[in-house]
Design brief:
mainly alpha; disordered C terminus
């Protein structure tokens, strides 16, 4: 009977059945197999009290075998009594690989990662070789520590020892390489496998999706050689994340349909669907999925609030936050980052200050660098450099985004000297500047007209830090040159860049042409872009504005007529103004103009 309960994962029934007097009477001698099964049930239930009672019974009966002793080590470890687990382990004289593995796994599951690694060394001194579960757990410890070199050593040990790769060990290796940023090594491990099962397939898809290779994740998911594998919740959620990153709505809808067909209805899949539709700008579909979620947890609320915020529905995002609190769901750091970003995007100063107060009351500021950075960014975009700097100085932990936001705050206000001073401080803090920080610095130099400094930082970025310039970096440099009247240099720079110029870069150049009355140069560049992109309305608009700035209204109207004849239309501009009303979150009045 007790075996039947065990095979059906009915752990509580095992404990209850063991505690009945009927079972005790049936057993003339206490069976070590029964002890092992009941200990396993206590481990799975995390029932430390029942486990201690059983331990006393085992001591009373005496002569436990190695399975029972290992079961006790495992039970105490899983109940987070790691010291008791180690005490029992040290009393075992003849330790086999299962016993060693139980103690090592116990350490790792209790985040005693270094202790687990040190115990493996003692295991080797005892001439006991690890199995797949020992080594898989040790690789997991290296992943959590970010110890890639040590993880590679264990991979080498696996190959040298001839240990067969099972799903657990393969997944651990893929997870190690993916999370340590070595996606090529993860891919090599995966494609060298003789047999690929659901677990390894899913692990590789997760690695691709989480490490910024969404196209590879989708390619692997649609590989016809894996058509016999039925995806689970983790697989589909990762594929939906890849669809969200690439904006591949068609594939996202297909995965949605597949999920319905397979009966996937758990929170992970539903939240991934909301996120995918929101990031593909289908906020209506995201809302429909959200409304069908029966038990909306904080992740579901975060997904929909973030979706509305990122799609420009600021007021709706704030209303959703209000509704979330009415439904007694406690916002977390992610929620506050989303609503603060919404306030920052439209200059909702009063609402943002209220959220600042909420963060302080809920204790979210001290525990999250992201909330502090979101608040700093909010104040910066609302033009309150003083409050932004106070937030910056009060933050104990700062990341590259924090530094970038503060540098950008001064740059927007034309205080380039303080931006450069802060950049110097980042170097003193031994924080290696990334492309975001350099974008902010170049933008600050551009706003202040500091051509020499901007050119120097651009060269430093490329030559010292080996950062490949993006369109934003190139646009800043063109803006610097154009504002300084060095339009021919700017044009030469545009022709030499290795990527196709976009509207932001050309807009910067044309602004310089208007400032310095060089319509001829501007016309040459825009005409060239019209030849390359005759279906892009933005270039017709640029050409029209260029002619209008010189008073050539006939030419300006002719360009706009040509745009209309080709079925193109300019998106209307809009402005938002925060109004004084009695509502908690006042709607933002929108004035549209063409």
């Amino acid at each position: 009977m007790i075996r039947w309960y065990f095979l059906n994962d009915s752990y509580w029934e095992i404990v209850q059945f063991y505690n009945t007097t009927r079972l005790r009477k049936c057993l003339n001698e206490y069976d070590n197999v029964v002890f092992s099964i009941v200990l396993k049930a206590c481990s799975e239930l995390r029932e430390i009290d029942e486990g201690r009672k059983l331990h006393c019974q085992i001591v009373k009966v005496g002569s436990p075998d190695s399975f029972v002793l290992t079961g006790l080590v495992d039970m105490y470890a899983k109940c987070r009594e790691i010291e008791d687990s180690r005490h029992l382990f040290d009393e075992i004289h003849e330790r086999n690989v299962v016993c060693w593995t139980s103690m090592i796994v116990g350490y790792i599951q209790n985040d005693c990662l270094k202790e687990g690694l040190l115990l493996f060394n003692k295991m080797r001194e005892g001439l006991v070789e690890g199995n797949q579960y020992t080594l898989g757990s040790l690789v997991t410890a290296c992943t959590k520590l970010g110890a890639l070199h040590q993880g590679k050593w264990f991979h080498g040990y696996v190959i040298k020892s001839g240990v067969d790769l099972n799903s657990f060990l393969v997944t651990s290796l893929l997870d190690l390489y993916s999370k340590c940023g070595e996606i090529r090594d993860a891919s090599s491990v995966f494609y060298e496998l003789s047999t690929i099962d659901l677990v390894s397939w899913t692990a590789m898809i997760v690695g691709y999706a989480q490490r910024g290779h969404p196209k590879e994740a989708l390619k692997l998911f649609t590989d016809k050689r894996r058509k016999f594998l039925l995806p689970n919740t983790i697989t589909t959620s990762s594929v939906l994340s890849a669809c969200a990153q690439t904006g591949y709505l068609t594939m996202g809808r297909s995965v949605h349909g597949l999920g319905i067909k397979l009966g996937l209805k758990d929170a992970t899949f539903e939240n991934a669907l909301i996120d995918m539709y929101a990031k593909c700008h289908m906020i209506g579909d995201a809302w429909c999925v959200f409304e069908t979620v029966f038990d909306k947890d904080v992740i579901a609320w975060n997904s929909i609030i973030s979706g509305y915020s990122q799609n420009g529905y600021t007021y709706e995002a704030l209303e959703l936050f209000h509704r979330m609190r009415l439904e007694s769901v406690s916002p977390d750091a992610v929620t506050l980052v989303s609503v603060l970003s919404a306030c920052a995007s439209v200059g909702g100063y009063r609402a943002g200050i209220s959220f600042h107060g909420y963060c302080m009351k809920a204790g979210l500021l001290s525990g999250s660098v992201y909330v502090g950075t979101a608040l700093l960014n909010f104040y910066a975009k609302c033009g309150d450099a003083e409050c932004a700097r106070l937030m910056f100085d009060e933050m104990g932990e700062k990341n590259s985004i924090t530094w970038s936001a503060m540098i950008g705050c001064y740059g927007i206000q034309g205080d380039c000297s303080r931006s450069l001073e802060l950049f110097g401080d980042t170097l003193k803090e031994k924080l290696e500047p990334n492309e975001v920080i350099f974008t902010t610095i170049l933008s600050a130099c551009s706003h202040s007209g500091m051509l020499g400094e901007g050119s120097r930082y651009f060269n430093t970025m490329c030559k010292v830090y080996n950062i490949v310039p993006s369109m934003k970096h190139y646009a800043c440099m063109v803006d610097l040159l154009a504002r300084a009247g060095r339009l021919k240099e700017a044009l030469d720079f545009i022709e030499k860049i290795p990527i196709q110029p976009d509207v932001s870069l050309l807009g910067a150049f044309l602004h310089g042409c208007r400032l310095h009355s060089r319509l001829d140069l501007g016309e040459v560049v825009v005409r060239r872009m019209l030849e390359l992109h005759p279906d892009k309305a933005c270039y017709y608009v640029l050409m029209s504005y260029l002619y209008a700035s010189e008073g050539r209204w006939g030419d300006a109207n002719q360009v706009m007529e040509l745009m209309k004849q080709r079925g193109l239309a300019k998106l209307p501009g809009w402005s938002q103004v925060e109004m004084e009303t009695g509502d908690d979150f006042s709607p933002l009045v929108v004035a549209s103009h063409s």
